[in-house]
Design a protein that fits this description.
Layout lengths: L16 E8 L2 E8 L5 E2 L4 E10 L2 E7 L10 E4 L6 H13 L2 E13 L4 E11 L8 E7 L5 E2 L3 H12 L5 E2 L16
């Protein structure tokens, strides 16, 4: 099953969509197009925000309530219309952990094609009293040398940030699909 949503009907007129090849600046591209009104589904990646939340000298990782596995990951969320990435990640940190963001630094921008997302990752220094949103069931605080990265999306952001702190990141290996795995998706 693909993790990327592909619409079947036109949102403008409800006619079926069909795959067509369109001539674009970069060459021919396959796109979903409406058979009636010619509306085109461009399938552009969705911007997702992520935060390496530093809380009182440790990094906070959280577990999403919807995850069947027991993995802990960065705080993530979708950027809302009308907000900057910085405002969006500060909002997500507040909504999901109740922490106030004191400072933000861009770590980098990361490809996450499996979910058709572009991840904009920040290092956030935050403080306050941790109170998790209903989306999260648990959190853990890690000393920097104890952090383990995962080979996808936000795991690469965490690895890059650890390198800026003089720590060579250690990566966990992916487990078989029947076992728990760490995944990147907004919490």
């Amino acid at each position: 099953m693909s993790a990327v949503f592909e619409p079947r009907f036109c949102p403008a007129c409800a006619a079926p969509l069909s795959m067509v090849e369109l001539a674009e600046d970069g060459g021919p591209k396959a796109r979903l197009r409406c058979t009636a009104c010619h509306w085109t589904h461009w399938n552009n990646p969705t911007p997702v925000l992520a935060a390496i939340v530093e809380y009182r000298g440790q990094v906070l990782l959280a577990r999403n309530a919807a995850w069947k596995h027991k993995a802990y990951a960065l705080i993530t969320g979708f950027m809302e219309a009308g907000e900057t990435p910085q405002d969006g990640i500060a909002r997500e940190i507040k909504e999901e952990t109740n922490l106030d963001t004191l400072s933000l630094d861009l770590v980098g921008v990361y490809d996450f094609q499996r979910m058709n997302q572009v991840i904009i990752a920040y290092h956030a220094v935050a403080d306050g009293e941790v109170k998790l949103s209903p989306e999260l069931v648990d959190y853990r605080l890690y000393d920097l040398p104890a952090l383990r990265c995962w080979p996808a999306g936000t795991g690469y952001a965490l690895a890059d940030w650890l390198r800026t702190r003089g720590i060579e990141p250690q990566f966990v290996e992916w487990q078989r699909p029947t076992e728990p795995v760490a995944v990147d998706r907004p919490a």
